[in-house]
Amino acid sequence: MRDVEKTIGNLIDKSKISIISSVDEDGYPNTKAMLAVRKRDGIKHFYFSTNTSSMRVAQYRRNPKACIYFYDARWFRGVMLKGTMEVLRDAESRKKIWQVGDRMYYPKGVDDPDYSVLRFTAVSGRYYADFESESFEI
Known about the structure:
The protein is α+β, with helices and mostly antiparallel strands. It has helices spanning 4-14, 55-62, 91-97, and strands at 17-23, 29-35, 39-41, 45-51, 65-72, 77-88, 115-129, 132-137. The radius of gyration is 15 Å and the shape is globular. The two termini are 14 Å apart.
């Protein structure tokens, strides 16, 4: 890869699905498909919306180690990022990624107690394309 941030960023921006993984209380990985990432800062920080009451939030609070994965099914390529996931409840973070249609999930609006932001911070990754894979640090 010549330009890691550009190559990975383009793949992520085209992804309509985000796959996130957490670690359960028995140490096993738990994986879930979510909607596209709400916001990203380069390939270091990623923001997702979620329900505060979710199993995933409880898992990240116990163990912040996480992975996120994005893929392009048409060209059979993907990227896995390893790092940590934080659960953010502050007003600024919640407003930063709020979208008009979110009331469907959080009827009380941006201040809904069941609305939280997940912020993933990547430390490394692995990119797969053209039958080859490459690891990289962030």
